Amino acid sequence: MRVGIDGLTVRYGPVMAVDDLHLEVGHGELLALVGPSGCGKTTTLGFVAGFTRASDGRLRFDERDVTGLSAQRRNIGYVFQDYAIYPHMTVAQNIRFPLEVARLARREADRLVRETAELVGVEQLLSRRPHQLSGGQRQRVALARALVKRPGVLLLDEPLSNLDAHLRAQTRAEIRRLQLELGMTTMFVTHDQSEALAIADRVAVMEGGHIVALDTPLAIYSRPQSLACARLIGAPPMNVWTLDAADAGFATRALAASLGHFASARVVAGVRP
Questions:
Q1: CA angle 68, 51, 89 (to 5 degrees)
Q2: pTM, whole model, 2 decimals?
Q3: DSSP class of residue 162?
Q4: Pairing state of beta strands 153-157 and 76-79?
Q5: Which of 54, 91, 158, 262 is the most exposed place for a label (fewest CB within 10 A)?
């Protein structure tokens, strides 16, 4: 399923959270939204999910306008940052819950729960409750619950932020494997650029409610489309010089061959460490 956002604007009182945003996500693509806190990435994801009320803008799934549809009718799967699995339910009951809401027949629901649990590797945990699970296992259960009804669009809101470094790397690889296996259109929100660069087909860099760069991970890193993108992407970040500043002499000498006839103009030069 293709996702199209046309002219999304979201205001919270005097604060402009997202300003006239346009974005297209291809069928089966994994698009990462990355940027600093408050840049509008979770607000954008909430609009696609149906959780966020927009001041203006339209949402399309394929060529169908779904802007007015409730979240329950959009055929999306959503994984929250804090898992949001029900503590009084077993793993099996948590995964089955969306199917019960959809009033699916019990036998079919049981089959889908078993298949999805095996897909994400929690088939041995179906009788346990959340307090008996590790952080990584809880995240897998949350992912299984989002996948069990085979949604057209999967939305992930910083799903790895509560995991330690080793589990983050392991789980992001698992998310990418599942996304490719199921061919599911996915939007992945993260403030961790390494996650975005590691698993996304394309990366949208956001700042101040705008998309300041949109390209493949390699292009975003190698040929950033804006100064904001250049400063955000990379660890450590890009070295930046303004050629009319105090260190202009060093910058000009170091970069003379690359700058050519621009060396005497007002130029901002950036070099990766």
A1: 125
A2: 0.89
A3: T
A4: parallel
A5: 262
Judged against a pLDDT cut of 90, whether residue 227 lies above it is answered with no
Cα(122)–Cα(144) distance, rounded to whole angstroms? 9
Q: Which of 47, 53, 36 is nearest to 4 (CA)?
A: 47
Q: How many angstroms separate the CA atoms of 240 and 67, rounded?
A: 42
Helix (H) or strand (E) holding 57: strand 56-61
79 contacts 159 by C-beta, under 8 angstroms: yes
Picking from 36, 30, 32, 8, the residue whose alpha carbon sits closest to that of residue 20 is 8
Question: Tokens 């250049």 identify what position?
Answer: 230
Residue 11 to residue 23: CA distance in whole angstroms = 18
Q: Is 240 strand, coil or helix? A: strand
